[in-house]
Amino acid sequence: MQRRLANVNMWTVSAAIIxxxxxxxxxxxxxGIFSPANENWAHMKEFVxxxxxxxxxxxxxxxxxxxxxxxxxxxxxxxxxxxPLRKFLKWAxxxxxxxxxxxxxxxxxxxxxxxxxxxxxxxxRFEMNLNPSFFDIMNLPGAIFIYTMFxxxxxxTITRIFLSQQSASLIESAxxxxxGPWRTFFQVVIPISRVSIIGGASxxxxxxxxxxxxxxxxxxxxxxxxxxQTWFGLGDIESSIKLxxxxxxxxxxxxxxxxxxxxxxxxxYSTTKVRPLPLIELKGWKAITATGYGLLILSxxxxxxxxxxxxxxxxxxxxxxxxxxxxxxxxSVTVAGISAFAIIVFALIVGNFSRLVHGKVxxxxxxxxxxxxxxxxxVIAVAVVTAFIALDRFLAPLYQMLGVGTTLVLSxxxxxxxxxxxxxxxxxxxxxxESGYDKIGTDFRDASRLLGVGLTKTFFKVDVPMLKGAIIxxxxxxxxxxxxxxxxxxxxxxxxxxxxxTKAFQYASDEKIMEASQASLLIVGISALAIVIFYKFLEKxxx
Amino acid sequence: xxxxxxxxxxFALVVLSACGNDTPSxxxxxxxxxxxxxxxxxxxxxxxHYDVDDQLYKKFEEETGIKVNVIKGEADELLERIKRExxxxxxxxxxxxxAGRLYRAKEDGLLQAVxxxxxxxxxxxxxxxxxxxxxxxxxxxxxxxxxxETVKPEDLSTYEALTEDQWKxxxxxxxxxxxxxxxxxxxxxxxNGEEKAKEWAAGLVSNFARDxxxxxxxxxxxxxxxxxxxxxxxxxYFGQMLNSEDPEEVKVAKGLGIFFPNQDTSGTHVNVSGAxxxxxxxxxxxxxxxxxxxxxxxxxxxxxxxxxxxxxxxSVEPTxxxxxxxxxxxxxxxxxxxxxxxxxSILIFNEVGWK
Lengths: 543, 355
Description:
The complex is a heterodimer of chains A (543) and B (355).
Chain A: H1 2-30, H2 39-47, H3 49-80, E1 81-82, H4 86-92, H5 101-112, H6 117-126, H7 140-166, H8 168-176, H9 181-192, H10 194-210, H11 213-218, H12 223-233, H13 237-262, E2 280-281, H14 284-316, H15 325-356, H16 360-368, H17 377-402, H18 414-440, H19 443-450, H20 455-466, H21 468-483, H22 487-492, H23 500-508, H24 517-538
Parallel strand pairs in A: 1-2
Chain B: H1 2-20, H2 23-36, E1 41-46, H3 51-64, E2 67-72, H4 75-85, E3 93-96, H5 99-107, H6 117-122, E4 135-147, E5 171-172, H7 179-192, H8 194-207, H9 216-224, E6 230-234, H10 235-242, H11 247-254, E7 256-259, E8 269-277, H12 284-294, H13 297-307, E9 310-311, H14 320-324, H15 336-340, H16 342-352
Parallel strand pairs in B: 1-2, 1-3, 5-6
Antiparallel strand pairs in B: 3-8, 4-6, 4-7, 4-8, 4-9
Family (chain A): Belongs to the binding-protein-dependent transport system permease family.
Pfam families (chain A): BPD_transp_1
Subcellular location (chain A): Cell inner membrane; Cell membrane
């Protein structure tokens, strides 16, 4: 009995520590909401805030709906049916995630603009001069397209894992009861995968809310614009943090509504054997449609921009210094690898805690740690810098004892950057792990515990094996996300530390998208490699 | 399944060791040099992201033996980092591509005055801060480019004239979040007063060919596409397009003429890249040396050539391309007003609905 208690304590205590550490930097932002409103705030409210908020709402709701539509339909096809290229599409459909949205935006604009390949070909080959506004993607629908094409994999990955591993018995029952594919989809698949759908879509929404690159380039004014306008333009970081805090408040509200919507119903494994769903073979035009649909999405989200980037790479080969690129690759992979590993470990601990405790408040706590994902990275960066400088000052006596000549030690090392990644991307890892925990429920753990197995041993022997899919997908999502991350890497890196994403950004921000192609392609290549390694070789299917 | 976990772990370990061999050892090396020979490095926070800058830093290191450590970022974010780091900051020199940001750094008390005969000789007085807190290094002009087929240079005169009715639906310019536009309006606030500046902004908005979108290059392309006839853009973007690897971009640029406005009145708007020594700098002397090096005749040539900017050092000639555009009269205002009026221009942009 005593040992068990000790175990519980170890888990809860470490989970609590992790959550506090993740939440602490956000605290400086949350408190910003109480700072008094000044004249800048009044100005923003009078002239722009209303229309910015409206634009943001349209942007996130439309993007969320479209990513759910695409992500879920693809997940359903892959999980339920057999058709040509299915195995390839299964992992390839995650690839669009490897393209940073701002690079995607620059690339698509590069394709369709006046000097782009489409208009040039029409002009030179067919002597056609079409109305240029026809090709204009730098507007709200264009931004929705960009975000949808490069972010739908969040929904796809999370729901596919859920559908293919967990839902077999329910869907099979539906089939046996004579429900057609459509009714099965709407009456069984959507309700049971609600958690994963919402989990994936909320990542999309948060990503759209915190992104600034795409909307800035397209000239679309969103809530994020307001945050940066008050900070950069008006030099008023207090108002800007107040705005960010309001955004966090909005996100907390959404999270609470989501928890309520999720309600009491739980769908967890009911048998000990986690079987994959037997696939139904599609034939004829149905098979062609399924393959065609998958390829269409993959082309829009991956092949088309990649081909353009490769073309640019050849155009600019030799015009930019490439000598250091190996170092950039190493730097990128290092920080992404370490941070993703830490995030997954933390997410497992916190997720387990969330299962162990009872009560609504305790259940909501872990959710709060994902707040960092809702606001622009640059704002998080300020909070992280502040926290680390305070920490360094606190540790200064220790540094002196050790004979280090400076006060700033941690905040000029990679520790600060990696911690910032963990704070920011914990949401991604946690969402994956949480939906994994949701799926396995508590029955098996309870059985194991009843048999007298300790909590920690149960965790490793029972939970972790069943969470395998969630761990893998979580790790990959986080790894790729960090690989392409920009604002944090830019501001929080130590001296002389360049990564592929800072390099890509360096050129793109200077309107040199062609020169940015080399670094962008390397980001994509490494991400693709990670996806292939994990999915092709690890997630073996019996079929 | 265990294998899966094992592989994840192994991957992380490989990654860890790959870096473990290198990054920390580099750090310790840095620290060692810091302790033994305090003055053999200089730490730079820069908002300029050009490859040519790195080459110059390397050259500086070769010539002086002083290593340049660099963090590249966005100006405002770097400023905030310096501010939060306070006295403990590692930054010695802050370099950015906008006079407004230099002004803000000075106002926030982040910079210190440095006096150097070399700098005074190399950087003209009007491109220095009056308290010698920062020094300009390169200049860029914000000019009008026009469609050679539909617009005659005689039709153009001033920025202000672009608000006249004949330009309705023909003017292209990027969004107001862009600092070059903010500085442009800030200069008008100084020259013409806030009311007139606001009238200008409102007038220009009503002549827009479309809602602002994209960057400076995109405005030039929109002229070629027939969306509008004139665009306001920075000189170096025009230079980059003329020398682009993409033949289509070159074609676009060749169809455009470049016009330096306000030659008979207040002069063409000019902004600078510049740098100031951080107040809490630990390697102040080295920072000054780097400033002197960057404004020296030989570096100034490299700066200008690679990025189609104008050197501030008057002993250095601009490149052939820039010379072919001719000499021009610049706005005669202290550059610090660009920073001083920055917030006012944001408010005006919002009020007149310049997206």
